[in-house]
Amino acid sequence: MFRLGVNEQTVSSQKKSDGLVIVSCSSFIPLKRVNLIVDILKSIQTKVKWIHFGDGPLMNEVKQKAVKELGENIISEFKGYVRHDDVIRFYKENYVDLFVNVSELEGIPVSIMEAISFGIPVTGCNICGVPEIVTSQTGFLWDVNFKPKEAAKQIESYLTVEESKKEELRSSAKNFWNENFNADKNYKAFIKDRFLN
Length: 197
Prior knowledge:
Number of helices: 7
Largest sheet: 4 strands, parallel
Strand content: 5-15%
Structural class: alpha/beta
Order of helices and strands: EHEHEHEHEEHHH
Number of strands: 6
Shape: globular
Strand order of the largest sheet: 3-2-1-4
């Protein structure tokens, strides 16, 4: 089996403040369940900035839900449609504490590959190919029918742990990307197997 992959990335921004940043990236359609991210965040007491990249038919509904249900400790920023290059630039220029994906149907998400290529810990649900990339080495794997309050506790526990523990997981996520989803390695291995042997 040959995996896809994404290019190696370097982060030009180090954590410069106590602010915590969570990022998600998907369309606003039912199977992506972006509304559940609001359900998770409303149970978090820590100050967090949540940034979402993507648009879709449910965007306004989720934005209204966020305004209505999230406390003052959660700042939400909906970027709408953003070019892929600009998303990558954002990761390069901004420190992200956690990438969140709660979709009920996925293959192996490229968005998660890209996050771990920057050493960003990730979440995802135990469906389809997601367990191949969301592991204890990269972040937190949830049951597809997870309880938002329990997910919130897990996220908050991670976000408030000492920085050395966070750096361990970030380093582990980056290493996991290099071992499994490094495009340069994977594509060369595919070419060698299929065309040079």
